[in-house]
Structure formats: structure tokens, C-alpha cells
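Let us practice reading a record.
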Amino acid sequence: MVVMVHGLGLSGRYFTPLARSLAAAGRTVLVPDLPGNVRSRRAVRRSPDVEETVEELLRWRTAAAIGPCVLVANSVGCQVTAALAAEHPRLVERMVLIGPALDATALSPVRQLLRLLTDAPREPLSLLAVAAADYLVTGPARSLAGFRCARQDASGPFEARLRRIEAPTLVLRGSGDPVAPQLWAERVTAALPHGRLAVVPGAAHAVHFSRPDITARQILEFGPVNESR
């Protein structure tokens, strides 16, 4: 079982290419929309912080009767899965952090915005269309509130949690990703007790969208996905 966790202000729609690649390999894939984002924005009155998002994700897992699984996250979603894996290690078989954000060495809103603007021309136009539609539905107020929560988590708790994660974890980035640069990805990997870094040449921040087959292969080769649980 693979559970995918999306980034800030987005829905799970941009995981569709990767989900299809994994499903074609015989894996079961679930892609929830986190509360406060896009179609689930009215599930909560305000944007939840990382800890509150984890609690919502745990409630969803219980309702769906999901056991230990592989967690695959992108961008700020990596902060959510890191918190879940650190606090509930028995629920996580393995974890994949794709373009982990926010970079603790560049938490200025201006720097983060510049990195996103730098990344945009490197992504497929089809992804930009999905992201624009999602951000429009989530709205600027919710997106900004979510960023503030993510920034607070990235300022300390995120890296502290990484050091407590027991599950084998793959850190995956595109070689052209300005949001999660190489030095930051190396720092994230070094903090993990069982971490490994892989870089996909020519891809940007959403490597799971632009290179879904390569990303799926990286996930499958990193370790078995136990479908019996």
C-alpha cells in the first residue's frame, strides 16, 4: 500500500501520473486531499499546522482501515510525513521524500517565492495548469496560513523529527529543483538514520509529475511494497 501526501495549497491530482505508474506495477495507491486544501478546504475552519494535519491523516487512515504503508510525499507534504513517521513509527514501512521543503536555510518568504518562480518555467505546462487551478480554489489566505505553519515547522521541528525516523527513507530530487537544492537534500538525508539520496537528471521540483516512470522505479527499487498488510 502506498499513500501519497501532497504539498502546500495543492490537491492530490498532481500525483496522478506517479499513481498510475505504481498501479501499473501492481501497487495499491491512495492519494488523499489534506484538510484545508482545494476540495477539502471546508473540512476545517482554518489551515491546520503540521501536527494537526498529522492527526487528521491518522483519522483518515483509521477510517480507511489502512495498516503500515509506504508514505510518498512532495514538498511541504514531506514535513507532514516526517512528523507522522517520527511519532508513529509502526505505521510506516518506508518513506519517500520528493523535493523536501521548506529549506531551513532559506525560510524568507521572498526567497521561497523566488525559488517557486524559478521552478515554474522548468515544469510541464500541464502541471502549471493543475497547480494554478488548485491554488485558486484553496485561496491566497489559506495558502499563506499554510506557509506560515510550514515555515514554523521547518525552523526546527522538521530536522529534529528526521533524526527520530526509524523507517528507511529515500530522498528524491530533480537535478534542476531550486525549491529543494542539492545541499539541502544532502542535509535532510544526513539527518535521517536510514536515509539515501537519489537525483533525477533534468527534472525540477515536481519530479513525480514530469518523470513518473523514473520516480516509480526509484520507489520500487528502494524497497518492497508489502501488499499483504
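A brief commentary: The two ends are 8 Å apart (CA to CA).
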